[in-house]
Design goal:
Largest interface: A-B, 33 and 32 residues
Shape of chain A: elongated
Strand content of chain A: 25-35%
Largest sheet of chain A: 10 strands, mixed
Low-confidence stretches of chain A: none
Oligomer: homodimer
Distance between the termini of chain A: 62 Å
Chain lengths: ~300, ~300
DNA sequence: GCGGACCCCAAAATCCGCTTATGCTTCATC
DNA sequence: GATGAAGCATAAGCGGATTTTGGGGTCCGC
């Protein structure tokens, strides 16, 4: 049975290219590395290195072990990371990663109640656009991820090890300058917006815009693309174009010269929270998820 | 970074169900196991066990680590096994796994020349029906695998890490009792065998028989199935039925009362050797593969 | 209530691995 | 080809980690 420390050192030697360099990186002295590699060769039963002048070269067996080392260290790191996450969660520290509009609306509401009801829980919040947030969750960089998906969009399937908690259906509105003729209506038909110029948002939102318009039989004239919601707001106010905008984003739009109107036919994006299935039963994650659900439910009534 | 020895002990504790039992299995004393698990819990940062009366129970973190332990130990074992194989090969010991008819024909011919030309090489031969032989190769239980596939058959794709060395196209014959009316012909048309009763061989061969007949527009009347070639020979001799049989098998059929005839349209199975790509450059495997190719080429002329 | 099975604890002994110190080889430079 | 720098190997000594020993506590079945 190989010693994991030897494997780690071996891996460092391979990537550093010398014993001395590996020793410097790992905080050993050079003879320590020599001895570890000797021990490794003893347990392997084959030489792993050959001397090539001043430097080293891997033998065939060394090459083989180098490939395996990646896997071995990877599985060790995965285990360590998961246990680390569990320990953190047990201590009540939850890392949440949301997308901008949720971080500005849903999350603060949920967190306010959370901290009142469960004073022991500590939250760290980061921001990432979907699908990056879910990727972070899978990489163990956060414990709860918020993401959204458009209904018709070809979204990647949710990995097996993740639990999806549907939060709300976020209806889409069209953001208009206040003087716009259609702004007097309560709701606006997508079909009436054929002649408009458009401002598109994040890649997913842009793709959705194109699809919704395609269903109405036209291709929108997208004159500007940015994932900065406040920029979109200002652009609309300035009359550059109009934009499709989820209600959640609209909630923190405060520009005097823009207004949102629900679109017809009804469009929405599904907002969900994601958690590793294994963490569902951990109190800290459970309460965070529960408060998110409550906050989402409260908001759905508005 | 976890210590692999701790992981190994942990795994044994989980499967044994107690510290003492694990200690007995691993040749430690019980306190040693206690301390190792203590150290493991320290590096993990979470308790892994809770006391449940006389025995132990895993915590949630323990469950998680137990799942990872399988992976970790598996990747360590895989590395060790591959290095072991390399060491063996470097020492000139090659483990070959063939299917019965190759073991009786091709392999002895190749091995005779091999041992003459390369006296240092030692060969161990085992037998397995495809696709089992390739599975053994992937599991590291042999170094060279021989397998065959029928042309139209839906064969599983060859894994990436394997090199396929085509050896020969083994033409199919039909095995007939000597008195059979068609036995006077040099070759036999499959279409003329509609009314015959059939004896089928191994699963792959049986599937191929069904397909070949289906191409001729009929379903064969299979009255007997066995993967024992000598049994097939005797059954044919006894007039129970006829059989589709590769030339390679025919080569060691010596029963007086049976005879083989090539079938039309030409049918054959492809016989190949498989080696881990990484072992292609290792002398011992290289010479074995080369001798197999030569033996196959020599036989193809017959 | 007693014995067996099991685990924990503490101290002593052992063992392993790291460091220090030194020598050898290789390579670049003059 | 002499010299110095960089790198690896080896030996000896030390310190910490790990194991064993010995003793004690708890739980469970009889």
């Amino acid at each position: 049975m190989f010693d994991s420390r030897h494997i780690k050192t071996f891996h460092q030697v391979v990537s550093s290219g010398s014993y001395s360099a590996a020793a410097r990186v790992l905080g050993y002295t050079q003879p320590a590395v020599t001895q570890q590699m000797k021990a490794l060769e003893r347990t392997a039963g084959v030489p792993l290195f050959t001397r090539a002048g001043r430097g080293l070269r891997l033998t065939e067996a060394g090459e083989a072990l180098a490939r395996h080392a990646e896997t071995i260290l990877g599985s060790l790191a995965a285990a360590q990371q998961q246990l680390g996450a569990l320990a953190r969660l047990r201590a009540g520290r939850v890392r949440v990663c949301g997308f901008p509009s949720a971080n500005a609306t849903l999350i603060p509401e949920a967190m306010a109640r959370l901290l009142a009801d469960h004073p022991g829980v500590r939250v760290e919040l980061t921001e990432a656009e979907p699908p990056e947030s879910v990727q972070r969750l899978l990489r163990g960089e956060c414990d709860v991820a918020l993401s959204f998906s458009y209904v018709g969009g070809g979204n990647a399937p949710v990995p097996e090890e993740l639990a999806e908690i549907p939060l709300l259906e976020d209806r889409l509105t069209v953001l208009l300058p206040v003087g716009h003729p259609l702004a007097r209506r309560h709701a606006v038909r997508m079909a009436d917006l054929v002649e408009e110029r458009w401002i598109a948002g994040c890649p997913r939102c842009r793709a959705n815009l194109l699809q919704v318009c395609a269903e109405q039989g036209y291709a929108p004239d997208v004159v500007f693309t940015t994932d900065d919601n406040l920029a979109v707001q200002s652009l609309v106010a300035a009359g550059v174009g109009i934009a499709l905008m989820p209600s959640l984003v609209l909630a923190f739009m405060c520009h005097q010269k823009v207004t949102g109107r629900l679109v017809e036919p009804h469009q929405f994006r599904r907002v969900s929270a994601y958690v590793l299935r294994e963490h569902l039963r951990v109190p800290a994650t459970a309460v965070v998820v529960e408060e998110l659900r409550l906050a989402a439910a409260a908001r759905a009534g508005c």
